């Protein structure tokens, strides 16, 4: 009886570990975010724009968003650090959604930035579908 409980307990723990283990798409999403912020730190705005999904540009053009990213750094200064504050991962019928909240530090102020990335189930690649920058200086 004790051996049976031990066996089922080990089996349950193994199954749970498999469910919460590291997801390759989660690691890939995090890597995308790091490369995105690296481009912003280096003021490579065209490269930063390449991380966005085309659906992001339905409400504003790439040129307008680039101008906004430049304006952020004009007002706040150069991006210095990004500190991860929160991560949420959601599995949807059409793919996986990764929501990251960062506390960002610039030369002349700070901001809280939220990035939402999406990996479609039927496509490779993880793209930014939403980006919000909240700062009193903006």
Could you characterize the architecture of this molecule?
There is one protein chain. This protein has 138 residues and is α+β, with helices and mostly antiparallel strands. It has a single domain (22-134), classed as Roll (Nuclear Transport Factor 2, Chain: A). The chain contains four helices and four strands. It has helices spanning 2-20, 24-41, 45-49, 62-76, and strands at 79-92, 95-106, 109-120, 127-134. It has a four-stranded antiparallel beta sheet. Strand 1 (79-92) and strand 2 form a beta hairpin. The radius of gyration is 19 Å and the shape is globular. Residues 2-21 have low confidence and may be disordered.
Q: Terminal Cα separation, in Å? A: 65 Å
Q: H/E element string? A: HHHHEEEE
Under CATH, the topology can be stated as Nuclear Transport Factor 2, Chain: A
CATH homologous group name: NTF2-like, domain 1
Q: How many structural domains in the coordinates?
A: 1
Which strand order does the major sheet show? 1-2-3-4
Radius of gyration: 19 Å
How many extended strands? 4
Query: Average pLDDT across residues?
Result: 88
Low-confidence region ranges: 2-21
Structural classification? alpha+beta
**In which range does the helix fraction lie?**
40-55%
Text of the CATH class = Alpha Beta
Number of helices: 4
Q: What best-fitting shape do the alpha-carbon axes yield?
A: globular
CATH architectural designation: Roll
Major β-sheet profile: 4 strands, antiparallel
């Amino acid at each position: 009886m004790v051996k049976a409980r031990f066996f089922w307990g080990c089996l349950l723990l193994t199954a749970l570990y498999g469910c919460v283990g590291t997801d390759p798409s989660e690691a890939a999403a995090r890597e995308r975010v790091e490369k995105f912020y690296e481009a912003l730190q280096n003021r490579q705005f065209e490269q930063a724009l390449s991380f966005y999904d085309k659906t992001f540009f339905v409400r504003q053009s790439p040129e307008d968003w680039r101008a906004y990213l430049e304006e952020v750094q004009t007002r706040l200064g150069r991006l210095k650090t990004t500190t991860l504050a929160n991560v949420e991962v959601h599995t949807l019928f059409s793919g996986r959604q990764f929501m990251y909240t960062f506390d960002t530090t610039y030369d002349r102020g700070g901001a809280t930035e939220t990035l939402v990335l999406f990996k479609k189930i039927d496509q490779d690649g993880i793209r930014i579908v939403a980006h919000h920058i909240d700062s009193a200086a903006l």
